[in-house]
Amino acid sequence: MIEVKDKINIGLIGLGTIGGGVAKILHDKADSITKQVGIPLVLRRVADLDDTRKDSLPDPGVFTTDARSILEDPEIDIVIELIGGEKPAKDFIEEAIRQNKHVVTANKEILAKYGPELLAMSDERQVGLFYEASVGGGIPLIAPLKRNLQVNNITSIHTIINGTTNYILTRMEKAGLEFSAALKEAQDLGYAEANPTSDIEGFDAAYKIAILATIAFHTDVRPDDVYHEGISRMASQDFRYAGELGYAIKLLAIAKKEGDSIQVRVHPVFIPDDMLLAKVDGVFNAVQIEGDLTGRVILYGRGAGSEPTANVVVADAIHIARSINLGTELQPELPLDAPKLIKPISEIETRYYIRMTIADQPGVLAQITRVFGDNLISISSAIQKEVDSTVQSTEIVIMTHTAKEQAMQQAIDQMKKLEVVKEINNLIRVED
Ligand code: HSE
What we know:
Elements: E1 8-13, H1 17-28, H2 30-37, E2 41-47, E3 63-64, H3 68-71, E4 78-81, H4 89-98, E5 102-105, H5 108-124, E6 129-130, H6 142-148, E7 154-160, H7 163-175, H8 179-188, H9 197-200, H10 203-217, E8 227-228, H11 236-245, E9 247-258, E10 261-272, E11 284-291, E12 295-302, H12 306-326, E13 341-342, E14 349-359, H13 364-374, E15 379-388, E16 393-400, E17 403-404, H14 405-416, E18 421-430
Parallel strand pairs: 1-2, 1-4, 2-3, 4-5, 5-6, 8-10, 10-13, 10-18
Antiparallel strand pairs: 7-9, 7-11, 9-10, 11-12, 14-16, 14-17, 14-18, 15-16
Bound molecules: L-homoserine (HSE).
């Protein structure tokens, strides 16, 4: 028998930036939300360890420091988990599902690492587990991929999915800043965290592309399957040379399907400066999806921030609440296909930009080009840049044609052993 409710109760765990936004939207837009759901959506309890945060709530009386009191409250229908990180958030999500509560979360780490198991658990209990806010903040990505693009055979995703690193790269390109100065600026503005490792080293983007690739390719992709490099070795010269060659440098998360195998990777990339993704600057995110029916689709917007992210959290809660009120079932997850081979980075083929410092003396270029030739790597251009006559060295930039990563890494190892090569300063893959 369908239980007739006169309201849907929400328990919110985590009253940080996004949680505060959720509480505000539920309060400020209560009338419009009631119209959409059919009955009111009530914020019954809010848990956070920091009890100074309760004063930001429209009704501080709902505040508690005990998250368990939400999980154990039989009146709560939907738990919104916004504390982030793996522990104790995963326990909270599992306990909420076990208590037959629906869950909305923004937790990319948990979805990337344990998504298929948690979704199977929520299907079994016939409750919803929604996570639109986990990838791309305010940009709707997961619902479009699961629903509107599902007939499409998606062949690739290229995405700028980390606002912190995109801000830093933009400042390096536009203002000529070095990495450390751009990072400091991002921290001062609140775009980068005091410990920026997860963003800077590509972990955050790896979680996000694992989630997107799993949905887009209907196959299990976990963070350990994603090759990732960060942006800390980028230097202002790289942006100058990229500009001269007609490229921008972006930290891309890339997922590609090639027959029965896929590749999933995060690293800095040269992209032609007339591509739309090249024009995505600052903290903005964008996702470019290629499908056999739609061709190219690009979604662009704010990948973080209180209101944009809280908007999609509340929208997930409204979707669940409507189905509770109407007594309709939430659609179970589509089963994943058989696992696909995930290509190791050594197997990919791409073009490369290499910046190196070499001795400025006769015959040096011949030695270097021989190493490329021996590894079957074809050079498309080699340009000599700044000469430092005090130490008789010069910087050169080499662009290659498409080559195998394994061959390129071998060539780099061999060049490092040449006496005339002072330093391999950077190696950046090129996506045309
Ligand atoms: N730290 C993330 C970013 C935002 O810089 O894009 C939340 O996913």
